[in-house]
Design brief:
- The complex is a heterodimer of chains A (about 220) and B (about 240).
- Chain A has about 220 residues and is mostly helical.
- Chain A has eleven helices and no strands.
- The two termini of chain A are about 35 Å apart.
- In chain A, about 40% of the residues are buried.
- Classes of the chains: A mainly alpha (about 220), B alpha+beta (about 240).
- At the A-B interface, helix 3, helix 4, helix 5, helix 8 and helix 9 of A face helix 1, helix 3 and helix 4 of B.
């Protein structure tokens, strides 16, 4: 990819007919930069537009870094993972498919997966797993819940998490914010594996319904 | 409700281990309702992500933008058709590997990207030996052939004969710096042996795996540069040789 991307998008702007389709499907380059959705920015990124990527970076780097930080705890490793993920967004943007979910979900899924893979392959994880196996996981668990609760500053998600049963909430937050496998969660909460699987699913169903995330959202 | 369907939640939370995750992803391809549920759960999880958002250190932006400026993007058409390629296509893929190896031998071009130009003579000699080995395997009348899609894009083909397997990839995504593809020989008794790093150029890579028996599998995973002793990530492809 070489050349001046800005002038390329300028040229496109010149030839696109006024009626480019319904507003939500308008060519992203027709929309003023500040008003573009993340999906529209991704469409431009897919064409190699670095300035669109920088605008997207502005919006999503906090989620990417924050997730990595929550799961990995170590700021240095979190930064490495965030860098990998953000570059992956650039590289794979041409394959983003809006029918498979929002840009935000696509990127946070990628970030979470990468952070979890890292924590499970690192020494930190082995130490943690040994502590879990030795039944020393309780403090870790209390610590997590406290950390998560104090950071729940946006009312909507807090409210929705409050709508889960305590057990559903525990299984979801231990897995999502700390990267525990469901087997680890089962050990930490002294629950059968099948129960944990079911609670995770039930918890997400409630969360989905409360947050209003439908297939049409 | 089928047992596997219950895993949608654990999957969306990345709470499955590598083996279960791979199994569930296979299931997802044939379960539309599971896939739809996973998409919704991932949206809900993204809501959870908002709550831990934290601005990264300011210097990260410059680092990422510098990498962006020199990183090629994937082609939009990452999807490979699901039908099984014809034998002719498998053979032409495999033949391409021989041509690449042969070209390297004649022209002194390093055919594995990690081999430097300074070692071109050694590389050419090695490539010539390798081309001969590849040709022997690819033309063996009793050879076994198998092809598979690679998770994340591309295809992989294995042609095995005489205890060796020629492993050929096409359209494999480029990896970020610090990562390489590593080839593994998974023995029938589940022992996993490294078969070296896979040099990939423009998505195409070739590897010759030795010590292959019927019932083994050849797999590839993404590893830190230089490789790992055992896979540390879920293999992106595993092809049984049988």
């Amino acid at each position: 990819m070489v050349g001046r991307r800005n002038s390329a998008s300028g040229a496109r702007r010149g030839v696109v007919p006024a009626a480019a389709g319904p507003p939500d499907r308008a060519l992203p380059s027709l929309v003023p930069p500040g008003e573009r959705t993340s999906e529209q920015l991704l469409e431009l990124v897919a064409l190699g537009d670095e300035s669109a990527f920088e605008a997207l970076y502005e919006r999503v780097s906090g989620i990417v870094f924050g997730l990595a930080r929550a799961v990995l705890r170590d700021p240095h490793q979190a930064e490495e993972v965030a860098q990998e993920v953000l570059l992956e967004v650039w590289r794979t943007a041409p394959r983003y498919d809006v029918s498979k979910g929002s840009a935000r979900a696509w990127i946070s899924t990628m970030a979470h997966r990468r952070a979890v893979d890292r924590v499970r392959s690192s020494q930190a994880s082995r130490t943690r797993d040994e502590a879990v196996a030795a039944g020393q996981g309780e403090r870790d668990y209390d610590d997590v819940v406290e950390q998560v609760e104090t950071r729940m500053d946006v009312e909507r998600v807090r409210h929705c998490l409050d709508g889960l049963t305590p057990r559903q909430r525990d299984t979801v937050t231990l897995a999502y914010y700390r990267g525990h496998s469901y087997a680890n969660v089962a050990t930490l909460l002294k629950l059968p594996l099948g129960t944990v699987k079911t609670r995770m699913r039930d918890g997400l169903i409630r969360l989905r319904d409360c947050l209003g995330v439908g297939s049409d959202a | 409700m089928p047992e596997l369907h219950l895993l949608t939640g654990a999957y969306a939370l990345d709470a499955l281990d590598d083996v279960e995750r791979a199994g569930f992803e296979r299931h997802l391809r044939s379960c539309g309702s599971c896939a739809a549920e996973v998409i919704e759960f991932q949206e809900a999880a993204a809501g959870l992500a908002d709550r831990v958002a934290m601005d990264p250190p300011e210097h990260l932006r410059a680092k990422v933008m510098a990498e962006v400026a020199r990183t090629r993007q994937l082609s939009p058409t990452g999807r490979v058709q699901l039908h099984r390629p014809s034998l002719r296509r498998i053979l032409s893929t495999a033949a391409a590997a021989v041509v690449i190896a042969g070209t390297a031998a004649l022209g002194g071009v390093a055919w594995q990207s990690h081999e430097s130009a300074q070692d071109s003579q050694i590389a050419a000699d090695r490539a010539a030996d390798r081309a001969a080995e590849l040709t022997n395997v690819l033309t063996d009348p009793s050879r076994i052939e198998a092809v598979s899609q690679v998770a994340g894009g591309g295809t992989a083909t294995v042609v095995a004969a005489q205890g060796k397997a020629v492993f050929v990839t096409k359209a494999l995504p480029a990896l970020p710096s610090g990562k390489q593809y590593q080839v593994w020989l998974v023995k029938a008794d589940k022992q996993i042996l490294s078969a070296g790093m896979l040099g990939v150029r423009d998505g195409s890579g070739q590897s010759l795996v030795t010590g292959v028996s019927n019932g083994d599998a050849v797999a590839v995973s993404v590893e830190p540069t230089g490789g790992s002793k055992q896979p540390t990530t879920t293999p992106i492809v595993a092809i049984p040789v049988a």
